[in-house]
Amino acid sequence: MIKQVDLVLSPVDAARTNSHLGFITKKLKINKTQVSFFRLEKKSVDARQREIKVQLRFIVVVDEPGYSPAKILFNQQNISNAKEVAVIGAGPAGLFAALQLIELGLKPVLFERGKDVHERKRDIATIHKSQIINPESNYCYGEGGAGTFSDGKLYTRSSKRGNVNRILELFCLHGADENVLYEAHPHIGSDKLPKVIENIRLRIIEAGGVFNFNTRVKEIIVADKKVNGLLLSNGSVFSVNNVILATGHSARDVYRMLNAKDILIESKGFAMGVRIEHPQSVIDNIQYHGFSRGELLPAASYNIIQQVNGRGVYSFCMCPGGFIVPAATTQGETVVNGMSASKRNSPFANAGFVTEIRDEDLTEFKKFGVLAGLEFQSYFEQLAFHNGGGGLIAPAQRIIDFILKRTSSSLPETSYISGIVPSDMHKWMPKIIGDNIGNALQMYSQRTKGFLSENAIMVGVESRTSSPIRIPRNPDTFEHVEIKGLYPCGEGAGYAGGIVSSAMDGMNVAIKIAMI
Ligand SMILES: Cc1cc2nc3c(=O)[nH]c(=O)nc-3n(C[C@H](O)[C@H](O)[C@H](O)COP(=O)(O)OP(=O)(O)OC[C@H]3O[C@@H](n4cnc5c(N)ncnc54)[C@H](O)[C@@H]3O)c2cc1C
Predict the structure, then answer these.
(1) Range of 337's domain?
(2) pLDDT tens track for 416-432
(3) Is residue 76 in a domain?
């Protein structure tokens, strides 16, 4: 008999995993010997009241001796000689598309402009040491895509678009901790993600799939509105009729190439802003009402959603116990993002804080046509670069000073290794972004005592949260609306945002291709 048991425990009791069985049997009024198996299904912290509780949900198998839980399965087949599908981009969308293609008996051939995860690690270290961005290997490009050196947060609001559990299971099967299966806000951590990504690659190769690293797809060759092949950066042509285009939203050259070839792309709304950072202790103090969390509770996070002048302003990609990282893909642009290690134990908490950008904000960029949003993003990134301190030193301001429109004469410590310099952000930021962010921060701080800490800063700019472009596809076949054999996929295509939703989109696209 399978039962679901919900427990609400103190943080201390919740942390004592060897006492869980006792609580379960007490609640079910049975003996420990009757429990054949039990597993944690969900775990979340309830800090709404002063007394913090941890909610645990268990699946318990009672009176079924010999019961063994189902294992995570992967239908691995030898696809070495199967029909080839080209996958451009080895980010979450491309990798999970490849895994799904294998399960469905097709052979993925991946093309990735960046390096494999080990070599990529070295380029990431160089970014920090020399403040120079390698345009083909950085925080956005390379094996695992933009998600590899991230927080590895694995939650999504797009759960209706696919099987979130399957994505979590596949991460687990390839080396992620089991806790991603039950934590309310699962995350892997940048220290563990590279190994998981490598294991996925080894699986794909073992089945007969192919990886081409350091290989940028320069052009998708199209004849009579059908994909014919790919022109690669080494000058060769790869002949293929089905292509999954999963290049992420930083690959501006890909959008430009599609536009130049008259392959339909569309502009769409997007979001931009800054990254805000607090000492983690400030956020813990606010969220845990002064309770000293020690090892018992996770580093606390927050979620801000505010309406300002009819527009959404919201926090995004929160990295408690994390670091701000330089995520530009070209020299001369400053872009920040966030990551954290699995233990989330840095003394800082950061989050993106962005506002919606609409068509009406892009009047000065109209001459770029469908690429207006992309050029706006790039312009904003260049402004941040020119208002920074040279190299990757980013412009920053204390939040209180930003709200009061006064100069920060000094800045507190930050997790951003490349360094920050004081900047009057309002002076150079597009007005709509400065005004909306300032108002939203003021409103949130009025409700949340302590948030406007002297040591809270904003760092510019957070521009790569969503794609300003959609590559339109048929909702039934997922094929491009005009080009046969082209399957736009993931965040760059405008159909996903975040690791899990991009991975789900990759799997969905692969399923559609297998149905042809
Ligand atoms: C620092 C950072 C932290 C983040 N943290 C999180 C997080 O914690 N949780 C979360 O859900 N999301 C996070 N994100 C966002 C998340 O990483 C993306 O939403 C996700 O990776 C998108 O997946 P994708 O496969 O669609 O594209 P991408 O991950 O962008 O992958 C695209 C791949 O295509 C390759 N490529 C591009 N152009 C070409 C070409 N012409 N030829 C060949 N290859 C090409 C790129 O090198 C890249 O590897 C973070 C992003 C960053 C930058």
Answers:
(1) 269-462
(2) 999 999 999 999 999 99
(3) no
Check whether residue 330 and residue 343 sit in a common domain: yes
What is the percent of the chain where pLDDT is above 70? 100
Per-residue pLDDT tens digits for 390-403: 999 999 999 999 99
Task: With respect to residue 77, please indicate whether it lies within any of the assigned structural domains.
Answer: no
Per-residue pLDDT at 158 exceeds 80: no
CB burial of 110-129 (b: ≥16 within 10 Å; e: otherwise) equals bbbbbbbbeebbebbeebee
Best residue among 499, 508, 509 to mutate for probing ligand 1, ranked by most atoms within 8 Å of CB: 499
Ligand 1 center–CA 209 separation, angstroms: 21
Pocket of ligand 1 contains residue 494 by CB under 6 Å: no
Confirm or reject: Cβ of 490 under 6 Å from ligand 1.
yes
pLDDT for residue 162: 82
Four-point Cα dihedral 24, 25, 26, 27, nearest 10: 50
Let me know if residue 94 belongs to a domain.
yes
Q: How far apart are CA 199 and CA 487, in angstroms?
A: 25
Q: Which atom of ligand 1 is nearest to the CA of 150?
A: 3
Whether the full predicted model's pTM is greater than 0.70, yes or no, is yes
**H helix runs in 182-268, sequence order:** 193-207, 252-260
Ligand 1 lined by 326 (C-beta under 6 Å): no
For ligand 1, say whether the CB of 491 is within 6 Å of any of its atoms.
Answer: yes
Q: What is the mean pLDDT of residues 363-369?
A: 96
Together in a domain, 342 and 361: yes
Whether residue 255 has its Cβ less than 6 Å from ligand 1: no
Q: Is the CB of 254 under 6 A from ligand 1?
A: yes
In sequence order, what are the residues at sequence separation of 6 or more whose Cβ sits closer than 8 angstroms to the Cβ of residue 98? Answer: 87, 90, 108, 110, 204, 209, 506, 510
- Our answer on whether the CB atom of 138 is closer than 6 Å to any ligand 1 atom is no
What is the percentage of the chain residues whose pLDDT exceeds 90? 92
Same domain assignment for residues 253 and 126: yes
Same-domain check for residues 229 and 115: yes
At residue 317, what are phi and psi to the nearest 5 degrees? Answer: 50, 55
